[in-house]
Amino acid sequence: MIKSKDNKLHIGIFGRTNTGKSSLINSLTGQNHAIVSEVAGTTTDPVKKSMEILGFGSTVIIDTAGIDDKGTLGELRISKTMQQLDIIDIAIILLSESVFGAEEVELISQLTLRQTPYILVHNKSDKYIVSNELVQHIDKTFGKKVISISAAESINLNELINELISVKNNFIENKPTLFGGLIDKGDYVLLVTPIDSEAPDGRMILPQVNAIRDVLDHNGINIVLRESELQKFFSDNKIKPKIVVTDSQAFEFVSRIVPDDIYLTGFSILLARLKGDFEEYLKGTPKISELKSGDKILLLESCTHTSSCEDIGRFKIPNWMMKFTGKELFFDIVSGLDKVQTPIEEYALIIQCGACMITRKQIFNRLRPAKDNNIPITNYGMAIAYMNGIFERATLPFQSNISKF
Predict the structure, then answer these.
(1) Helix runs in 300-397, H state only
(2) Span 10-173: which CATH code?
(3) Is 375 buried (19+), middle (13-18) or exposed (0-12) by CB count in 10 A?
(4) Which residues on adjacent β-strands are paired with residue 95?
(5) How far is CA 349 from CA 61, 124, 166, 172, 309, in A?
(6) Looking at 114-169, which runs of residues are DSSP E strands?
(7) R_g of the chain computed on alpha carbons
(8) What is the pTM for the complete model shown?
(9) For residue 206, which of 367, 401, 5 has the smallest C-alpha distance?
(10) CA 135, CA 13: separation in Å to the nearest integer?
(11) Where does CATH 3.40.50.11420 sit in the chain?
(12) What pLDDT score does 176 carry?
């Protein structure tokens, strides 16, 4: 089972048995987080921990079993190790004693497929010098340098940390934001936040909190109210928001009140543009009208939670979709990052939640099998907007900004 609910950068450490993966974690963090042993197979299941890497910052680091593990149990451990490729942002491939073969080549192939940056590190430099032949081979074949370190003796760790920082800065430089390209300094942003049984007691849901912060980061002005106060807002003052953002469930109600000359969208659509494959969502959403009786729909949630009869994914979307299409449809729901058990080819449509709890990389990897099999993909908010007849209006604010993300 793959689970990760942290938006920090995820770094996975991969390598053969006893290359020093656990020692590297301890050296990077300056603490004994991972068990170190010369006994092969000490690390079995992947271990994920939120950590502070000295000089790099806060991250989720993943210690994995050896990619050359042996036997039936070894194959299972390798399988779990490879599953981590779908949730990491950066990979460190650890080598030692100048050993580099089919296992590392396959690992690099899988990382390249997922467009995940990786760093090649040769460990135990206090005992073994990396061969020039290997360095030249890796440079010629993969265009990569090899960083030589000793995790046990903390030798040359600064070079590795500097490389991690370089990759991290590239992430930050190219990281999209919720309102990037949508608002300017001083613009008013009206956030409509219904309070129902699914709302956490005494708190706002994460997409609403993130939206408030992002407006502030763009030097905008937040106006936050419940849908019941929306009509009064427009009746009692002359403020004209640049954009109104609502919970998807209130689209129908809110769209009747917000003037047509004001942008209107949903929190889930903002997240779709921020994290999801927005262009695929745009193409896939209208496929709702082509569904046939007997079709299977897969709903992907990014977190696990208790549900009620007001649950958007488990109850409302299925009911709305069957009413909208007039067809008898069947729905599977997969929470968190759990594996989809049914062959993906059996689904006529995939509906992904806003994914406030997981990273952009995790979303793209999660949806890749559907995209590879030409299965239409949409998002909770975009599907709801479509079924309420306001899909074009709700996505209009982003149409000229798609290429930037």
Answers:
(1) 317-325, 360-372, 380-387, 391-395
(2) 3.40.50.300
(3) buried
(4) 122
(5) 33, 49, 38, 32, 23
(6) 118-123, 146-148
(7) 24
(8) 0.73
(9) 5
(10) 20
(11) 188-270
(12) 79
Structure tokens at 270: 């903002």
For residue 32, name the pLDDT band (cuts at 50, 70, 90).
low
What does the pLDDT read at residue 403? 37
CB atoms within 10 A of CB 54: 13
Model confidence pLDDT, tens digit, residues 354-391: 877 778 888 888 899 999 999 999 999 999 999 999 99
Q: Which CATH number fits domain 188-270: 3.40.50.11420, 3.30.70.1140, 2.70.98.10, 3.10.180.10?
A: 3.40.50.11420
DSSP string spanning 180-218? TTT--TT-EEEEE----TTSPTTS--HHHHHHHHHHHHT
Please answer whether residues 187 and 242 qualify as being in contact, where contact means their C-beta atoms are separated by less than 8 angstroms: yes
Query: If DSSP codes are grouped into helix, strand and coil, which group holds residue 264?
Result: strand
> For residue 8, what pLDDT band results from cuts at 50, 70 and 90?
confident
**Local confidence band at 307 (pLDDT 50, 70, 90 cut-offs):** very low
- pLDDT tens digits, one per residue of 135-180: 999 999 999 999 999 998 989 999 999 999 999 888 766 677 899 9
Q: Is residue 205 within 8 Å of residue 172, measured between CB atoms?
A: no
Q: Residue 38 to residues 33, 115, 124, 163, 390: CA-CA distances in angstroms?
A: 16, 33, 13, 28, 61
State how far the alpha carbon of 268 is from the alpha carbons of 15, 34, 208, 259, 276, in Å: 38, 38, 10, 21, 10
In single-letter form, the type of residue at position 389 comes to G
What CATH architecture applies to the domain 284-391?
Answer: 3-Layer(aba) Sandwich (3.40)
Residues of the chain with CATH 3.40.50.300: 10-173
Place of tokens 């994460």: 206
Single-letter amino acid code for the residue at 336: G
Comparing CA positions, the residue from 118, 172, 87, 167 lying closest to residue 358 is 87
For 139, residues 6+ apart whose C-beta sits below 8 A from its C-beta are 145
Three-state SS at 67: coil
